[in-house]
Amino acid sequence: MKEFSIIIKAQITLGKQLIALNAMQKQCLIEQNTKQSAAVTLQTEQIMHQIVALESKKQQLLQGLGTTTELQITVDKSIAELEKKLQDIVFELKEQNTKNKFLLKKNIEFIDFNINVMSRTVADPLYAAKGASSSISGRNKIFDQTI
């Protein structure tokens, strides 16, 4: 069980690092700093790989413990507290990711808008979901007015 708590503590530490990186990513999106955003994304990916590896180790350890009734007997209070901390970190990361996703979507819409202004035509969005198309393609567009 000691190894199990070590893995959870490591995940908590990495989770806190992800929270800090998500805050940096939010700032990069607000400031439209693409170079810094790319560097933060790379760091985030590296931490995520470490978390996945730790989770794999944790799952292997759990499989080695046996049935769920045996597991319930062996789980002590400190591990339950660590799991609660980890759940709180995951919840906070989920909230931050939702906000960053919104900011990223707004930045992409701004890019599409600028392309439309420069080309003075409406084209299918460059960064749209696969298969999505504009219903008014072919019309000229100046700012938000279709002419």
What's this entry about, in short?
With 147 residues, the chain is mainly α. It has 4 helices and 2 strands. The longest helix has 43 residues, at 77-119.
Overall SS class: mainly alpha
Shape: elongated
Radius of gyration: 23 Å
Placed side by side, the strands forming the largest sheet appear as: 1-2
Beta-strand share of residues: under 5%
Helix content: over 70%
* End-to-end CA span: 69 Å
- Low-pLDDT windows of residues: none
Q: Number of helical runs?
A: 4
- Total strands: the figure is 2
Q: Give the mean pLDDT.
A: 80
How many strands, what sense, and barrel or not for the largest sheet?
Answer: 2 strands, antiparallel
Question: H/E series, N to C?
Answer: HHHHEE
Give descriptors for this structure.
two-stranded antiparallel sheet; 76% helix; 147 residues; mainly alpha
Topology:
Elements (H helix, E strand, L loop, with lengths): L1 H30 L2 H32 L2 H7 L2 H43 L21 E2 L2 E2 L1
Antiparallel strand pairs: 1-2
